[in-house]
Amino acid sequence: MSFDLIAGQDRAVAALRRMLRSSRTPHALIFAGPPGVGKMTTALEFAKALVCAKQADDACGRCPHCRKAEHGTHPDIYRVEPEGDGRQIKIEVFHNRKTGEGLLKTLNLKPNEAKHKVVLIDQAEAMNGPSANCFLKTLEEPPPQSVLVLVTPRPDDLPETIVSRCQVIRFCPLAQGIVRDALEKHGLDAATARFLAQSSGGSLGRATEMAGETALPAVRMELLRLVTGLHEGNLIASAARVTQIVRELATARAEAAATPVRTESRSVAEWLLDLAVLFYRDVAVRQVGVDPDRMLNQDVADLIDKETSISRRGIRSILDRIEEAKGFVRANVDIDATVLDTFSGIAACRDQRAA
Questions:
Q1: Which of 188, 177, 228, 241 is nearest to 210 (CA)?
Q2: What is this structure's pTM?
Q3: What residue segments make up the domains of the chain, in order of their start?
Q4: Distance CA 92, CA 319 (A)
Q5: Which of 69, 76, 91, 337 would give a disulfide with 131, using CB separation of 3.0 to 4.6 Å?
Q6: Alpha helices (H) along the chain
Q7: Do residues 128 and 93 make contact, with C-beta atoms less than 8 angstroms apart?
Q8: pLDDT digit string (tens) for 241-297?
Q9: What is the pLDDT of residues 16-39, one digit of tens each?
Q10: What's the CATH code, domain 213-350?
């Protein structure tokens, strides 16, 4: 693989190529953007280019360094990710106080084979307090010949003292066409690929994950019927049904991937909220006369037309409430309470009918 095969992130890739050509790569970078859009794939390719014997703006893919990097065996590329039930990156990764071992010691040694040592920290926001403080010391006195790459969907969760010492490379959601084409190349039929691309929020990772869950089309339809039928009399029952869906899907995902149910619950809840956002965006564009064939949720045009009777201000308020709820989910606010509060807000906004 090379940078040329990374789809939809032209701006980020161009910035990295410029760094490589100039031979002035910052000692620390943050790859920030939504989950599943190619941040870690790009980070691995960037690491390969840094250790490549060619030392150009892309890895050659043929030298011994590139071959080792592709197989995950290069002695100068280190990958860190959350571990344990709490899914944290703990201080022992960087410095074990009992043994003195850890990445800090390793980074202060000369590279084994290449010109650089490269550390890729996946889900960097999972560093706990002690590990973040330890890592900050590394940034304050960066080891020579080392490049540190923090990969995160939530850069705001990193301490400002860390962010301020890194160059941030932004990754954007992928275009629907890119997601759809990638899914079709993996054998999905056109209709399923289109649905997943529309529902993914520009995340190929999320779309791929959803492709293995046959219940999702029915879940989406049930969610949309629930939100478009909200009123004061059914709030509690509707919210309870959604939280039940979250628990069922999260439990299935956790069992399949051996991940914590709590982590999967946040992921499922955010996906459901994204579906609601995409739906009400279609309502907003339909209100200004956009043809139904150009809407993402063409298969539920009847529900969209039903909601166009809500005032434009009401639709904007619904979208704001859903985006606020996504923030609550990311901040680990109780999902049951978040769903009930959001549904209450949507119901109130649905009462704002257009004149």
A1: 188
A2: 0.77
A3: 3-170, 213-350
A4: 42
A5: 91
A6: 10-22, 39-51, 64-70, 91-94, 103-107, 129-140, 160-163, 176-185, 190-199, 204-211, 216-227, 235-257, 261-287, 301-307, 312-330, 335-350
A7: no
A8: 999 999 999 998 888 777 788 888 988 998 899 889 989 999 999 998 877 677 778
A9: 999 999 988 999 999 999 889 999
A10: 1.20.272
